Amino acid sequence: MGYQYSLAHLSVLRLSPAEMITVAARTGYDFVSLRMTAVTTTERTFPLMDNPVMMHEAKALLADTGLEVLDIELARLGPDDEPENFQAFLETGAELGARHVICQLPDPDRDRAIERFARLCDMAKPLGLTVDLEFPSWTETPDITETARVLNAVNRSNAGMLIDTLHVDRCRANLDELTTAPRQWFNFIQLCDAAKEIPATEAGLIHTARCDRQFPGDGGLNLQEMLACLPQVPYSLEIPNNKLINQLGAEEYAQRMLVAAKHYLEGDYRQSEREPLSA
Fold first, then answer.
1. What pTM does this model have?
2. Cross-strand pairs, 16
3. Cα separations (Å) of 142 from 106, 148, 216?
4. How far is Cα 216 from Cα 121, in angstroms, rounded to an integer?
5. Cα–Cα nearest to 102, from 85, 122, 81, 124
6. Residue 152 pLDDT > 60
7. 100 has which bridge partners?
8. What kind and span of H or E run contains 53?
9. What is the mean pLDDT of residues 7-24?
10. Model confidence over 47-80: pLDDT tens digits?
11. Angstrom distance (rounded) from CA 85 to CA 99
C-alpha cells in the first residue's frame, strides 16, 4: 500500500466541513478528518449530526470529489459523559463513511473510564468504526503505558491506540512500548513535528498542540525512530500553526503541509518543492 494522507480539521479549523473537503480535494489529499464536537468553549464547531443541511453538503462533496473520511472527533468521556450521548455522533460518522473515532478519557475514575470506553467500542462496532484512544500528556490517560492498560482491560477488537507524534514525544515515551504493542492497535497516525524543548506547564503543552506545531522535519521530534516502530498506516496531518496559516491562508497551508509530509516520508520530492515551506 502506498502512503495515504488525511487533512486533519485542527490544522484548518476555521474551515467548515464543506470548505475543508474542497480544499483537501484541490490539494491532493486522500481523506479528511472531521472534528464534529467542540474540544474548547471558544472554537468554531461543526456538529454535522445536528445540522442536516451541513451534512447533506458534506456528503455531496465527498461523493463528487472521491475523498473519504478517515476519522471523526471527538468522543471525550469525562466524569459526566455517558457513551450513549455520542450515539448520533457515531451514526453520523458511519453515514459519512468514516473508519475511526478518536476518543479521550479525561476521567480520574479509571474503572469508570474503562467501562465507558468498552461501551463506546461496543456501540461503534456494528457501525464499522474503530475507537482510537488518544493520550495527551496533560490528561488522565497521559501516556502509552496507561493507554495500553485501558486497551488490554476492554479487550475489544475495534479498540485502538491513536499515535499523535507530538503526544508520544511529550509523554517521554519509551519507544519499546510502541515496538511491542499489538500491530492491530494502530489504525492511523497523526503526524507533526514541533520544537524539541518540552514546555514546563500544561498551558504551554496545550498551546503547542493547538497553535504551534511544525511540518515534519522542521522541528526537533525524533520522528524517524518513532515512525520506525509503527506499521505504515494512513497519516492524518494535524499540524496547526496559527502564524503560518494566517500568513498563507488555509488552502496554501494545506498544500504545503502535504508536500512537506510527502517529502519527509517518501523522500522522492524535489528539494526545490520543499524549500518554500519555511516561508
1. 0.94
2. none
3. 10, 11, 23
4. 32
5. 124
6. yes
7. 71, 130
8. helix 52-65
9. 97
10. 999 999 999 999 999 999 999 999 999 999 999 9
11. 20
Strands (E) across the chain are located at 5-8, 31-35, 68-76, 100-104, 130-133, 159-161, 163-164, 189-191, 235-237
Surface-to-core class of residue 279, CB atoms within 10 Å of its CB (0-12 exposed, 13-18 middle, 19+ buried): exposed
Task: Identify any residues that bridge with 190 across adjacent strands, giving them in sequence order.
Answer: 164, 236
Which residue's C-alpha cell is 453538503? 57
Strand order of the β-sheet with 100-104 is 159-161, 130-133, 100-104, 68-76, 31-35, 5-8, 235-237, 189-191, 163-164
pLDDT digits (tens, 9 = 90+) for 175-231: 999 999 999 999 999 999 999 999 999 999 999 999 999 999 999 999 999 999 999
Distance CA 101, CA 70 (A): 9
Report the distance separating Cα 78 and Cα 80, nearest Å.
Answer: 5
